[in-house]
Amino acid sequence: MTPMKKILENFIILAIILVIFQTIFEELAVVMKLSRDTKHLLIFTGFVFDAIFSLEFLLRFGLALKNKRTRKYLGSELGWIDFFSSLPLLLLNSGPMFVLLSTGDTSMVEINAGAIGVMNVLKLAKVVRVSRILRVMRFLKLLKNIKFLNSKITQKHNNFIVSTVITVMIVTIMAMNISSLWSLDNLQQIRKENYQRVLTQSLDISLLYQKDYLSEVLLPILKDDPAVFLAEFQGRNIYYVEKPDMSLVEINNVKTLEFNQLTLYYVDHDAMILEARFNLVIIFMIIFSVIALLILYARKFALEISDTMLVVEKGMSDPEYFLRLKENPERDDEVEKLARAYNDIWLPVKLKYKNEIYTENDQEFLKKMDDIDLDAILREEL
What we know:
Layout: H1 3-31, H2 36-66, H3 70-74, H4 79-84, H5 87-102, H6 113-119, H7 152-178, H8 185-208, H9 213-224, E1 228-233, E2 236-240, H10 248-251, E3 254-259, E4 262-267, H11 269-317, H12 334-352, H13 354-357, H14 362-371, H15 374-381
Helix pairs in contact: 1-2, 1-11, 2-5, 7-11, 8-9, 11-12
């Protein structure tokens, strides 16, 4: 690997680690109700990471096409992770939000129904509510840089198992969102029913006490509700917050309620927080699952399979290597049978015929092997 390529690989590894933290902080910002500027900074950093990873994918994919190894890149080299964790997010999530963020100061935009309609274009990305979780899939790319006793078979096998488990988890979660098995619609419906009940009661109060419905009853209620930022009655604004402290995250979660001739626009904070907590659970579940598989499964695989393969391979290729494998009488699987055969058959044969088996000249080796009656040797050893 050239020095420049090594620098780029290390940069990508650092970016993967940082984007995982960025994704976690992006959800925590919603749960903790951090400031608008903080949320916009996280949107900007998310866009930068998605742009970097999209460029990386395009470069790697272009090189794979040029070298006619596209299938290998998308498959065994986890190129499909490069794709799903970059371009879809850039085009449907962070890209549109960054464009809206860079075209004006959202705190100074006059809030109206038309502006809300433009902002709701962002909800294309909400088809899959956990779209940002796709960034965490890049955690799997780090596995390529973790070594297990220099065993390629452990590395390859563990990468496949972990990638499969995490992919199934994410696909299952997405399927639940698309099929509405996990949905915030019920929570949003409860919120709307509460608003309708309050509006109905306020209308009854205005009729009972002969008070002006809009100015004396409704407006005080709207001012006491921090979620409502715009109200229209018969097509005209009767209440609005001139400079709402709303980030694009809140604007992306704007809901409307129509009651008679009244239309309310409000931010569904409860749904936002619930969704963010759900995403955090998924993120940490993925991270801890990967760590558990690395610590528990990879170690078990190395001890029970790859260590045996390493000893056998070295014992057959190195003429001075005579280490016996540790046998477990309680096991009777194929690996244990290989260990016993290696100890009981190969090592005695190797010790007795080492000079005949190992030679620097391949032709001389083949000639000597033709002269050796292996069947007789094995019968003698057995």
